[in-house]
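Input chain follows. Return structure tokens only.
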Amino acid sequence: MKFLYSLAFIIGADNWKLDKVPHEILDTLMEFDKNESQILDLGCGIGKESVFLALQGWRVIGIDFIIYAIHKANKAANAANVLDRTLFISADVSKLSLLKLPPIHFAYDIGCFHLLNPDQMECYIVGLNKIIVSGGVFLLNAFTPRQQGKKTVGLDSETVKNLFSPDFELERTSNHSYWRYPANWYWLRRK
């Protein structure tokens, strides 16, 4: 999988990127204080959303396992003059607990979690539990269940609720999708 995503970024076949920062992220951020909050962008790719948020005054950490994407994210942050408000890390999102991250108030994932295998999902959640502060929000955007080759990818609300409990409470969902495939947004609050 890593090879395919690396190749996609290099040749520009990364058509899963969104044209603009989803309003779900911007609306959720309204409850946080820019001066007191740290944001985590999981599966940040080339850092488009992270850089946009940094330009608005937020402090953002972006994580992606594609080194080329992280390189492009750093170039974008430099070009936007927000290197002081961004940190991009090349790492596996399922190994967050191995990273020395500050307390996170708001984290979001736009289409990364639903591609992980069950063991990776479990490790990802363990890592989130360690870094998101009590009362913090994790905003997950994931495909609804569908066939992708020989396997089923995607999540439904009940699965998300069960995976993230007891440490997170599923507060609400939305079925607004930015892709050609159905996807849901899940707002999870850290207890």
